[in-house]
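User: I've been going back and forth on whether these two constructs are worth ordering. Before I decide, could you fold them both?

Assistant: Sure. I'll take them in the order you sent them. The first construct and its C-alpha cells:
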Amino acid sequence: MPYGIIQPPSTLKFHEMSKQELVDYGRWFHASAPERMSQLEDAVQSTRGYESWVATCEPDSLDFLGEWLAAEVRIRPRNKDEIAELQSGTSLLASPSTWT
C-alpha cells in the first residue's frame, strides 16, 4: 500500500505566509497527525517483513521505520529552477541540497 502524499490547505512557502496563516497551518498540521500516522502504519505494515510494525516513537520502532524508509525512498537531482526557488526569499546560511 503506497503512502499517499498529503495536500496541505495552503502554500508551503512559509516565508510568504501571514502570522494567521502560519497559525492555521499549524493547527491543520497537528490535527492531521493521527490520520497520517495511521496511514503510515498501514503503508509500512503492507511491506513484507514489517507486518507487525507499530508507530510507537520508541527507538526500536524508529529504527525499523528508518530501515523501511531507506528501502522505499528514491532520490533524484534537483533541477536549477528547484534550487533557485529554494534560495529565493530566504536567508539560508548553507546552500540547499542538490538532491531531493
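The second construct, handled the same way:
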Amino acid sequence: MKMVKSLLLGSAAGLVAMTGAQAADLPVKAKAVQYVKICSLYGAGFYYIPGTDTCIKLGGFVRYENNWQANGSFAVRMNGATGTFTRTSNDVVTRARGVITTDARSQTEYGTLRSYTAFGEQWTTGDATTAGSGAVTNMYRLFIQLGGFTAGRTASFFDLWDTPKYSNTTNVIASDTGGTGQNLIAYTFSFGNGLSASLSFEDPTMRRAGVANAAVATTFGSTGLVTGSYAGANWPDVVTNLRVDQAWGAAQIMGAIHAVTATYYGATQLETNGHPNDEVGWAIGGGLNLNVPWAQGDTFSVQAAYTQGALAYVAQGLAGGSALGNGLAVFNGQNVALGYATDGVYGPTGSIELTSAWSVYAGIQHYWTPNLRTSLYGGYLALMYNANATALICGDLPGAHTGACNADWQMFQIGSRTVFNPVANLDLSVDILYNRYQTAGLGSTVVLAPGNSKPTQAYTLTDEGVWQAMFRVQRNFYP
C-alpha cells in the first residue's frame, strides 16, 4: 500500500513539474510599445520627432466654396473684368483649397525655438484647366521665432483685426494680412502680465496702393485705374505696437511709416526728366478684441486707423503689391462708380501729394448653441485728396468729362455669416455681404474704354451697390 501511495504522489509531482515547465514556454503578451512619444510641453497635439528633442504638431484644412459675385473670396468685385458686370463676367466662382500646417518647437538656452509653416494649393474658377497646371500655391505662414524675435512670413504687427473670425470674404476695408502673410523681421519685448511692445521691419511692396503720375494717361484694366509710378523699394516699412493680451481679450495701439517714392516726371519716364522728392507716409491705429461676458465663445472686435500716404494700412484690399495701383470701377449698365486709390499723386513738376484716408471695422459673433454661431460685421472707408491732388486727378480723367469734380470717395460694407457644425471640425457656412461705393463726386459723366466686352463711351458717374454671397464647406483637422 505504501508503494502504491508513493507511486501516485510521485506521478502527481512529475505532472505538476511538467505542467509548470510547459507553461513557462508559452508565449506571453508583449507590453505595448509607444512608437510616437507624446510631447506635453506645448499643449495638445504635439509629439516628439523620433530621435530628437523637437516636438511637432501637424494640422490643416480642406475647403470648398461657391461664391456669387464674391470674386473667389479674394476680394469684392471692384475693378477690372469683375467690375464690368457684362455677359463675360463670372457671377459664380468656385474655389477648392487644401492647407497643411506644421508647428515644430524645442527648448534652447535662449527660450523656445519655434518654426511654423502653413502651405497648400487651390484652384479657382478662371485658373488653367489642364490637369495639374492650374493649381495656385498658397503659402501664408513661414516663420521662425526665438527669444522674442520673429522672422519670416506672418501677419503684420500692425494688424489686430482678424477677418476669419467673422467673415469668409477678404474685406477691402481695414488692415488684415492674416490671409496672405507679410515678410518681416520683428522683436517683441514682454513686460509681463500680458503687456508687450513690438518693433517690426516689413516688406514695403505689400503695402503699396500706387503712386499716380498725372502726366501719363489714366488707364482702365485689371491692374487698376491709375498709371503706377512707384520707384523701387529702398527701405522697409517700420511698424510698432503696444499690446495687452489677457483673459478678457486683447487691445493694441499701433503705428507705421512707409516710403512713398516715384520714378520720374513726364510721360516718357526718362531718368533725365528728374523725379519728385521722396515722401514718408504714415499710419496710426488702435484695436480691441473682447470676449463678451454674456455667453461662452461670443466675441466683439473693432479696429480703426488713419493714414497719410499709406493707404493699405486702412484698406488692405486696395494694395496693389506692384508698381500699378488699384482703383474702383464698378459698372451698372451705362453707369459707373469710379474712384482712385493711391498713396500719392504727382504732376509734371512738384512734389508727391499724399492721400489721406481713415477706416473703421467691427464685428460681433454669437453662439446660439455650441455648434451654431452667427456674426454681424461691417466697416466704413473714406479717402481724401487735397486741392493739388484733386486738380491733377480731375485734369487727367480718361476722356472728356463733365460736371464738378471731387476726387474724394467712400465705401461701406455690412455682412453676416452663419456657421453650422453638424459634426466636430466640419464647418458649413453661409456669408452674405453688401458693398456700397460712394463716388459720384468726380462729375456727371466720363468717357471710358473699359474693354472686357464693355463699349468705349460716356458713362454716368453714380454711387453703386453690390450684393455678394458665399457658401463654404471646410473640414479642419487641427489636433
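Notes on the second construct follow. The two ends are 76 Å apart (CA to CA). The first strand starts at residue 47 and ends at 48.
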